[in-house]
Amino acid sequence: MEVDNSLEISFDEIAKEYGDMVSSICRRMIQDPSMAEDAAQEVWIQIIKSINSFKGDSKLSTWIYSVTRRVIISYCTKEKKYTTRFLTNYFRNGKLEIPKDIDYDKVIWIKEMCDKCITGMLHCLDNEKRLIYLFKDMAQLEYKDIAFIFNKEEAAVRKMVSRIRHKLKNFLNDQCILYNPKGKCDCRMKKLVKEINLNKEYEKIRKIIGKVNFLLESEKILPKKNFWKNYI
Questions:
Q1: CA-to-CA distance for 180 and 76, rounded, in angstroms?
Q2: Number of H helices, E strands in the chain
Q3: Which residues contact 232 (CB under 8 A, 6 or more apart)?
Q4: Which residues neighbour 112 within 8 Å (Cβ) at sequence distance 6 or greater?
Q5: Residue 165 in contact with residue 157, Cβ under 8 Å?
Q6: What are the two backbone dihedrals, phi and then psi, of residue 122, each rounded to the nearest 5 degrees?
Q7: RNA polymerase sigma-70 region domain: from which residue to which, for each copy (predicted)?
Q8: Phi then psi for 52, rounded to 5 degrees?
Q9: Distance set, CA 44 to CA 87, 170, 173, 206 (Å)
Q10: What span, in angstroms and rounded, lies between the C-alpha atoms of 228 and 68?
Q11: Of 80, 96, 103, 228, which is least surrounded by CB within 10 A?
Q12: In this structure, is the dihedral angle defined by the CA atoms of residues 28, 29, 31 and 34, taken in order, positive or negative?
C-alpha cells in the first residue's frame, strides 16, 4: 500500500503511541488470539486508509479509538456473554492441561493462562459495555470522549462505567487471588499462581504505586503483544 511520505512520521508516532493499547483492547475484546490480531491489524489498515478524513474536529486519540470501535465491534459478532455463575464454575472446574513439553516455560504459561482468565472474566459484559469499560479503565479516555465515540450522553456513560466497575469488583473480590489475595478464590490456577508467587508481583506493584487499576496492573505483569509491530 502506497502512503503519502508526508504522513510517515505521523503514522510512526501513531503506531508507537497507540499500538500497544489497541492491541490490548482487541485482545480483551476477542477471545480467539488470531482473530484479535486480525482486528488490531484491521484497525491499523483503516487508520492508514482514512487518516486524510481526520479534520481535527476531535482529538486525534478520539478519532483513533472511534476507528477502533467500528472495527472491533464488527469482529465481535460471535463473542458470547457469560453469566458470572458460569464463569465461576468454569474457572474452578474447567479442564486444565499443563504442557508436558520439556521446553515450555512454566512461569510464562501460568501468566498466559491468568491473562486468558481476565479476558474471559470481562465477557460477563456484552460487547458494547466491555469496550466502553476498556476505553475508560485501560485506555484511560475521558468520559466525554467515550460519549462522543459511542454517541451517548456523558452522564449515561458515567453511570454505565460505575455499574460495570461494581459488578467486576464484586466478582474479582471473591474469585481472583490476583485481585484480592484474601478473598475466597478457589480457581483452578490458584495453586500454580502461588507456586510462582504471581500474586506477590501484584502485591508489590500495589505497595509501590498504591491503589492501581487492576487491568493496567495486569498489563504490566502478564504477557502482552503489539499486533502492530510488523507494520511500524
A1: 30
A2: 11, 0
A3: 12, 15, 16, 19
A4: 222, 223
A5: no
A6: -65, -15
A7: 16-81
A8: -70, -15
A9: 32, 35, 36, 34
A10: 13
A11: 103
A12: negative
Residue with cell 466491555: 130
Q: Residues near 50 by Cβ (< 8 Å), separated by ≥ 6? A: 67
Using a 10 angstrom Cβ sphere, with 0-12 exposed, 13-18 middle and 19 or more buried, the burial of residue 122 is buried
pLDDT in tens, the chain (232 residues): 344 444 444 788 888 899 999 999 999 999 999 999 999 999 999 999 988 888 777 788 999 999 999 999 999 998 999 999 999 999 998 888 888 776 678 899 999 999 999 999 999 999 999 999 999 999 999 999 999 999 999 999 999 999 999 999 999 998 999 999 888 889 999 999 999 999 999 988 888 776 678 998 898 899 888 888 765 5
How far apart CA 133 and CA 41 sit, in angstroms, is: 22
> Per the structure block, which three cell numbers stand in for 217?
496492573
Amino acid in position 62: T
For CA atoms 174, 179, 183, 186, the dihedral sign is positive
Exposed/middle/buried for 188, CB within 10 Å: 0-12, 13-18, 19+? Answer: middle
Which set of grid coordinates corresponds to residue 124?
460477563
